[in-house]
Amino acid sequence: MNGWKLLPLVCLLALAIAAPISEAHADEEAPAPAPTPAPTPPLTPAPASNSDNPDQGNILILGGTVFHESSTLTGEEQVSVQERDQSFDYQNYNRLSARVIYLRPQSERLYLGFGADFVGNYAANIVDDDGPSDPPDVYSFGPLLETMGFAEWRFPLSDDLTFSVGTQLGLAMVFPRGDLAAEIRSLQNNNVRVWRIPRFGGAAGAHTAFRYTIDDRLGLRADLGLQWQNIIMFRTQQTVDGSPFRKHWTTGALRGRLGISLEILL
Length: 266
What we know:
The chain is an alpha+beta fold.
């Protein structure tokens, strides 16, 4: 009987001893919380370096050309029933032109832009069967302006030398002066309705060039090009004082050019 009385006391003692042991095991078995990773700072792209590709930039080309052409003026005039052939072959009398070109990079190799060539007095040195006459028989048309779009592909050959090949296409304009202006005045005095306005045509060509680097922004450029040009000087058909009148003049030129220019990286 005394054993049964002691049984509740033994159970209470056992529970008192087991409780702290269970808590200790729970503390040992619970995994430690994982450390929170530090936030990754955002990646900032490295600034582009111009030294990796020094030629990539807008380019201004200033210079001039020496040119030679083999040309023909195809012309005819009809007054009433009489027709006259006014055609003649000619070479250029003046040989220098001024040039300005602006180019923008479109890719690593391709540049696109626009430019102009200007001849102060475009004049024909008329050629007969024996060649240019001596003294020269010159027919002056007036100032010539060509405005063209350019496409150019560039290929580095070394750190200082670049080769390029390109094409151009655009508009040619002659502003009548000299003999062409006198021809217009003569027609006006005979009641022909013509005006002293620019004469328009087209021009197209191809070129190659070499560029030598002087410093980070300057380069010396040499061009060699071939160009075709066509300009309508007169194209009129009308009735003058009761008689039919027609006058057609068109020039066609095949021109070779050698140019020296300064390239400026903007």
